[in-house]
Amino acid sequence: MTAFPNTPAAPGRRSQSARRVAPADHRVEEAYWGYVVRPLAPLSRLTAVMQVAATAGGVVALALTAGLWLVPLHDDSVTLLAFRLAASLVLAAAGTLLLWVGNRGTRRELQVDIAMGEVREVVRNRSGLPTLLGRHAFNAVGGVFLARGPDGRRGRASLVIRLGNSPQIVTVASGPEEALLPLRDRLGQDLMIRPRTPAPEPDAPQSRRSRLPPLAEPAL
After folding, report:
1. Smallest Cα–Cα separation from 149: which of 124, 115, 175?
2. What is the pLDDT along the chain (220 residues), one digit of tens a residue?
3. Does 211 fall in a domain?
4. 33 & 67 share domain
5. How many structural domains compose the chain?
6. pTM attached to this predicted model
7. Is 37 found in the same domain as 137?
8. Whether residue 68 is found in the same domain as residue 174
9. Is 199 exposed, middle or buried (0-12, 13-18, 19+ CB in 10 A)?
């Protein structure tokens, strides 16, 4: 009996399980009320520096506001009092805004609360404190689908949910299309919505010559 060596299968005959699936750009964390979808990309150093600078600037502005009223002035004229009041209002507003920017955070996450029947958009700051951006009931969601980017690259997509029949969408996660399919199916089941696949790309336009009817053969 002759033994034949194992020959590799043709590329076109490989099974679906043999294909390598790119790792996901998000993670799903389970909770007693549902689950949370968070991105895996770390916070950029520039963003962290800007948040620290905004927080420090806000503290300085509020300190200057307090200093305007703590330092005694020898001239108690109405003009000087009005200037002090206007300057303190501007500094207080700027300090409050800078503190809000520095502590608001940029780490976005999506919370799917099955117990409450709603989807929440949340951002977290460096300390992990959350800020609620919006909340949407399950019955207000009109669709769950994968959307490719404007560049049309294959393999990359964004998982989004549409609010009602409006063009407003909420991005759940972005990354390799195959890595988003399990989350799309889970969201579609939890929201009681049938998930939709991305719309097929239009075929390449045919040339003018290919659209012409065939020439008739001359009669003999």
Report:
1. 175
2. 444 344 444 444 444 444 555 667 788 999 999 999 988 876 667 767 787 888 888 888 888 888 888 877 666 677 777 888 888 898 889 888 888 877 777 788 999 999 999 999 998 877 777 888 899 999 888 888 888 766 555 678 888 999 888 888 888 988 888 888 999 999 989 887 544 444 444 444 444 443 434 444 444 4
3. no
4. no
5. 2
6. 0.61
7. yes
8. no
9. exposed
